[in-house]
TrEMBL record, chains A, B:
Species assigned in the record: Aeromicrobium flavum
InterPro entries registered for this protein in UniProt: ArsR-like_HTH, ArsR_HTH, HTH_ArsR_DNA-bd_dom, HTH_MetalResp_TranReg, WH-like_DNA-bd_sf, WH_DNA-bd_sf
Coiled-coil annotated spans: none
GO molecular function, one term: DNA-binding transcription factor activity
Entry keywords, A to Z: DNA-binding, Transcription, Transcription regulation
Protein name: Putative transcriptional regulator, ArsR family protein
Domain HTH arsR-type: start-end pairs: 20-120
């Protein structure tokens, strides 16, 4: 990146990675909106905390203290936004966390230096 | 974790990590709410993409195509929710991503197996 002529260089820090595109930002903000609810954050965490990173509605209804229809409603929103995957096996539906659902932004929020290893474009 | 007697064992998967507490879920959902906006997702990504993981308002106003007061308003929300840190240096305010702002949930969303290395309690 070239610093525009005449701009106060003392305030300007160069880009070292490719920022997110507007379209990706819109898609990600939809996922964050789905997580702007304490119950859905707990459900996502509960699914991830089970063996193999997957759980059945029956495993996670009791810990959140809500009815199964309410839990199923929240899980549906997490599936629709691509944060959880759902697989029907006989009587039960199993839910698992979708890896990389938040793209490199989850790395950024984990550790700002993590993106250095993500192979993003250097400026 | 002990499977309750009489429950259909075929549907039950054991816990292998500690799920998030209700208080932490509430705190995290506030941060996700701050990110339920495409502009704020872009700003967070832009800050992280700059050298050293920090940027000045002057670095990120032009890329998002908004006025500096509007950008400052969005940055203030990201600071208030603990996603960005703000440091005043002379004329300019510099913003940096707060590492670990989403706790182990950002690891869960990055890779469901990542939590295995987080030292969380095994069930």
């Amino acid at each position: 990146m070239v610093t525009p002529a005449g701009q106060d260089a003392s305030c300007c820090i160069p880009l070292t990675a490719a920022p997110i595109t507007p379209d990706d930002a819109t898609e990600l903000s939809r996922k964050f909106k789905a997580l702007a609810d304490p119950t859905r954050v707990r459900l996502l965490s509960l699914v991830a905390a089970h063996e193999g990173g997957e759980a059945c509605v029956c495993d996670i209804t009791e810990p959140v203290g809500l009815s199964q229809p309410t839990v199923s409603h929240h899980l549906k929103i997490l599936v629709e936004t691509g944060l959880l995957a759902r697989e029907q096996r006989g009587t039960w539906a199993f839910y698992s966390v979708v890896p990389g659902a938040l793209g490199h932004l989850s790395d950024v929020l984990r550790d700002p230096t993590a993106r250095e290893t993500q192979g993003l474009v250097k400026g």
